[in-house]
Amino acid sequence: MPTRRQTLALGAVLIAAPTLAVAQTANRPNPMPEPLRKALERDPNAPVLGNPRGDITLTEFFDYNCPFCKKIMPKMQQLISADPGLRVVFREWPVFGEGSDFAARAALAALAQGKYWQMHSGLMQMRDRAAEPSVMRVVRKLGLDEAKLRADMQSDRVSSHIATSFELADHMSLAGTPTLIAGDDAVFGDQSLDDIQALIAKARKMLG
User: Fold this and answer.
1) Looking at residue 170, what is its pLDDT?
2) So what's the pLDDT on residue 27?
3) Would you call 2 helix, strand, or coil by DSSP?
4) Which of 17, 73, 165, 170 is deepest in the core (most CB within 10 A)?
5) 115 HSE (CA, 13 A, CB side)
6) What is the helix, strand, coil percentage profile of the chain, to 5?
7) Who contacts 52 (Cβ-Cβ below 8 Å, separation ≥6)?
8) What is the pLDDT of residue 31?
9) What is the pLDDT of residues 163-175, one digit of tens each?
10) CB–CB of 47/58 below 8 Å?
C-alpha cells in the first residue's frame, strides 16, 4: 500500500445537526449527511465527466502541482472508460500556491469553451511546474480563445468553484491532494487502479 495513502472517515469530522445525519448502521458507522453529499456530488458549478446520470459518484480534489495527482490522472481516464455507470466530479483545489491557482482558473475557464477535459489532461501531463507561462502554452496548443479565457478566469463562476473547494476541504478536514471520495469514504494520496475500484465498489454496495 502506498505510504501516503490514508483512509479518512468523513463522518467523524463533520459538524452537522443530528436531524441531518443518516442513521448509523453496522455497514455505515460514519454516514455522510445528505446536505454534504449534495454539495460534493451535485454542485452545478463543478465539472462532471463520465456518465452524468451514473449510479455512483466519485469526487476528486486535486492540484496541478501535485505529483500524485498527475499519477492518478490516467487511472481516472481508465475508470471513466471502463465503468459506464461512473460519474466523476472534479474539484479544483489549488493548495500549492499562485501557479496552482492560475492553472485551476484556466482549466475551469476552458469549460466555457467546451475543452475542460483537454485542458485538465494537458495540465496534468506537463513536466514543468504549473505557472502562467506553462499553463498558457497548453492554452495555445489547444487553440483556446485566450482573451475569453483570461476574462472567464476572473468570473464569479470560477472563483466560486475554488472557494467552495476550500470550504468543503476545510469542513471535512481533508489531508491534501489527491483526495478521492465515494459513498461515505475517502482515500488520500497515490492510489492503484484496484484501490480506486474498490472504493467505488464499496460505495455502490453501501448506497445500494
Assistant:
1) 95
2) 65
3) coil
4) 165
5) 17
6) 50, 15, 35
7) 87
8) 87
9) 999 999 999 999 9
10) no
Amino acid 25: pLDDT: 58
Give the cell for residue 12.
467523524
Output the DSSP codes for 70-121: HHHHHHHHHHHHH-TTEEEEEEE---S-HHHHHHHHHHHHHGGGT-HHHHHH
pTM listed for this prediction: 0.87
Residue 179 to residue 7: CA distance in whole angstroms: 10
- In degrees and rounded to multiples of 5, residue 98 shows phi and psi of -60, -40
Cell of 20: 441531518
The grid coordinates of residue 52 equal: 452524468
Q: Give the amino acid at 161.
A: H
Q: What's residue 11's pLDDT?
A: 39
pLDDT at 10: 40
Question: Which regions in the chain score pLDDT beneath 50?
Answer: 1-22
Give 23-50 as a DSSP string: PP-SS-SSPPPHHHHHHHH--TTS-EEE
Answer whether 182's CB lies under 8 Å from 61's CB. no
- Please report, as a single letter, which amino acid is at residue 63: D
The amino acid at residue 124 is M
Look up cell 453529499; give the residue: 37
